[in-house]
Specification:
The protein has 427 residues and is an alpha/beta fold. The chain has 14 helices and 13 strands. It is globular.
């Protein structure tokens, strides 16, 4: 039997070996981290920004958007979480990002072609709440991000329109829409190898209609893996997965206003107009503040044009109705009225880029009774800061048929760009 001293001497080499292994392991991790950091630096920004991309839909050439030329100046970075980081990553996106749209989006001979084709009249006021759903598709097909080569694509677009399915008498019901979408995705997985390579994790679809939340309910992989880009982006929504899905700004087709009503010309404290039947929070708002002369709060029969309420008010309320989202947020931004967001669990659009606290006021549902006290506590300088920051972010909530600058399409595409690094099998 060995003595304790001999045992200690024999154990020492093994102990030293473990320690050396740990040190070498740490050194290897540090080395690999440095290598990864170098390999992921943004590429050189010198590129030909006038390169033409031919749209698969027509023979028309669309000029590639030199989006970063329309960026806000660097000193105007207050409303942003990290402007420098965003700008560098955005530029890399414009250089590299590619999206493949499945060919149904170009097929006019399909009996359900209206479900897949771009909307022929995107600025028709009747589209209302579903404007963003249709404009994303139109902008994508006319952007430099679209590719006709699926093997160079980072993501794949499933081009069905929930809004058009809802208006199609052959489908219409929520159950029928879910059946249609499930069958369509099954067909895509049989005809193309790309869905099966990732189980749908690099695929996405876009909708603004509230029934869209059930569209993926009958296809498990679509619900669990694919990215839904939705206006109804609620943490409380059973089919919305916050780490996977993306909030889309709900925007109405409004005429462009190049000149905003200045702060000194806004003589009302608060404006709100909308139905209250579908929301106990709106009902409480009306009961508490409906008769306050500093506030214009209406549920119907406005005594002046709707847009006038935004133009003449300092703050404009967005209050949760049936869903967390309405177009009142983007309407307020459009008309230069500071949004008061009273909608718990709302995953606000672009919140990893925009610091919403710098151009809006977020109020919990339980604080309705304290609303006026809170607003009156905001100093004149603080209000002016909110107003000027709001002016800086307005361009992010505008759609263009041919996307440009940091508009709503490119901001949404950037959210998709951040989801691109997904594992997939080889095709």
């Amino acid at each position: 039997m060995m003595s304790p001293a001999e045992t200690k001497r024999r154990r020492r080499p093994y102990y030293l070996q473990k320690r050396l292994t740990a040190v070498l392991g740490i050194a290897l991790v540090v080395a690999l981290s440095s290598l990864f950091a170098v390999s992921n630096r943004p590429h050189s920004l010198s590129h030909d920004s006038s390169r033409n991309i031919q749209s698969p839909t027509t023979s028309t050439n669309f000029n590639r958007t030199n989006a970063h030329n329309n960026a806000p100046p660097l000193q105007h970075s207050d409303p942003y979480c990290d402007w420098q980081l965003f700008m560098a990553d955005f530029r890399e996106m414009m250089l590299r990002f590619k999206i493949f749209a499945y060919p149904d989006v170009f097929a006019s001979n399909n009996p359900f072609s209206r479900v897949f084709l771009p909307h022929p009249e995107p600025f028709n006021p009747r589209l209302g709440n579903y404007f963003s759903e249709h404009m994303f598709k139109i902008s994508l097909l006319r952007s430099s991000l679209i590719t006709s080569n699926p093997r160079e694509a980072h993501l794949f677009f499933l081009p069905f329109s929930v809004n058009n399915l809802r208006n199609d008498p052959r489908v219409r019901s929520e159950a029928s829409i879910a059946e249609f979408v499930a069958q369509y995705v099954t067909n895509v997985s049989r005809q193309f190898p790309f869905w099966n390579a990732s189980a749908g994790a690099d695929h996405f679809y876009v909708y603004c209609h509230s029934v869209g939340r059930d569209a993926a309910s009958k296809h498990r992989a679509l619900h669990n893996n694919a990215i839904q880009v939705t206006c109804s982006s609620s943490y409380f929504q059973r089919f919305y997965v916050a780490h996977k899905d993306i909030g889309l700004p709900q925007i109405w087709p409004r005429p462009s206003d190049s000149v905003l009503n200045p702060p000194h010309a806004r003589d009302k404290l608060v404006f709100y107009s909308g139905r209250v039947q579908n929301s106990h929070i709106r009902q409480e708002l009306l009961a508490v503040w409906g008769n306050d002369t500093d506030m214009d709060i209406f549920q119907h029969n406005l005594p002046f044009p709707y847009e006038e309420g935004f133009k003449r008010s300092k703050f404009c309320l967005h209050v949760k109705g049936y869903e967390v989202n309405t177009a009142r947020v983007s309407d307020a931004i459009h008309y230069g009225c500071i949004p008061i967001i009273m909608s718990n669990y709302y995953d606000l659009p672009f919140s990893n880029v925009l610091n919403w606290s710098k151009f809006s006021i977020i109020v919990n549902h339980r604080e309705i009774g304290l609303l006026k006290k809170r607003l009156l506590s905001i100093s004149k300088q603080m209000y002016l800061n909110l107003y000027h920051n709001l002016c800086k972010v307005r361009g992010h909530f505008v759609w263009h048929e041919v996307p440009k600058g940091y508009d709503a399409f490119h901001m949404t595409a950037y959210q998709l760009w951040l989801k691109r690094n997904l594992h997939r099998l080889s095709y």
